[in-house]
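Cross-check.
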Amino acid sequence: MPKPTIMQRLRKLNRFYDPLVDAAFYLMIVLMLYSKGLQFLMPPEEIKALPTSGIYVTLFLITWPLLFLLVAARFMRDEFAQKIWSKTAGTFTYFVVFFPLFFMLTIAAFGTDAFLWFEAGGTLFDDRLDTPPPPDVTFEQAPREVTQFVMFYGLVETISQIAIWSPIIFFAIYKFYRWRDSR
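Predicted model, tokenized:
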């Protein structure tokens, strides 16, 4: 009897795909709720001093890459999961294309004032700057170094949030399709 190849052995992992998706998805949701809840309730210095912050970081650093692996791990999906994954990928593509348009139209309709509650203090500047400009200074009047830092920090923060939330959104769509097809 021939020895099974690596791919044949990896295909046996397909029975673990959906349980791994469920576990990683729900754990990531709990971690994000925990993180956002703490950010709402406590200042950053106190959050870092919590004994649970090490556990949070460890779980996050395991779960987040696992979600990306599960998106890419075709060898772990059976035919049913692959069919649902394909539908999810199509829907996610529409989301990626149309969400920025929806966001920009919302800003155009309601103005930037609708989004000021995201900002600490309602200013364009980050609180983490050593010497933030006074609140009455406009973006155009701020020193060039400050505006470059704020714009760069904003870009980094945007990419970080996209990287964190995109696999969560992908698997939320996947789980919806799986639930709908199982009924």
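The chain has two domains: 1-77, 78-183. Helices lie at 6-11, 17-41, 44-49, 53-72, 79-110, 144-182. Passed to J.P. for a second look.
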